[in-house]
Every structure is written in structure tokens, then in C-alpha cells.
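Mods, move this if it's the wrong board.
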Amino acid sequence: QVQLVESGGGLVQTGGSLRLSCAASGRTFGRSAMAWFRQAPGKEREFVAAISWNDGTTSYADSVKGRSTISRDNAKNMVYLQMNSLKPEDTAVYYCAASKSSYGRGVATTTWGYGTWGQGTQVTVSS
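Not the wrong board. C-alpha cells:
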């Protein structure tokens, strides 16, 4: 089982950047795909980005593609989300998630594929 703790959120102006971090504990981290989701007030949780457990395969939501980069450091049990050119519509609570399955192929882009979640970190982009 993996436990996840996010950090790095905050208040930033439009056009600014943030780097979110997710610290993972547990023996299964290295064989789990990892993802970031976000949830704005009154909206459903939505996919942001994901990275495979082994070969660096990534997937991004269209809304963040070209502005965000997901990465992981398996030696440090960390996952990161670098977000640039932030917009007010990026305002949300951002959640780190670990896949339900180990050694999976590719990455899932829906909440159904992830079984462990962090507590979230708030990102607020002012206009």
C-alpha cells in the first residue's frame, strides 16, 4: 500500500509557475503508475497528468498540455508536476494518486484507475 502527501501549492499570479510535489511511502510505489488530478469548487475531479511506473510514458489533459510536465524519481519516492503559464481556470485542489494495479501497461486517465489518493494541495491563480 502506498501513502501519498502533496505539497507545493499556493497563490500565484496569472502566467506564473508552480511545482507540486508528492511524497510516497510504501513498497509498491516503484511499480505503480502515478497521476495528478484536480477538483475545483462545484466541479468533478478531473484528470491532469499521469506517468507510467517504468518507461516514462506520460499523458496530459488537453487543458494543461504544453504547460505542464509530470515526472517521477523512483529513488526518492517522489512525483512532481511542474505547471507553467498558469491561468485562473487552473485554480483547484490538486491530488496525487497511485494506480490500483502494479506493473500495469500504459497509464489511466480516469479516477477509476487509481486506488490511493493524497489529501490534496490548493492551487490558486489570481487574475
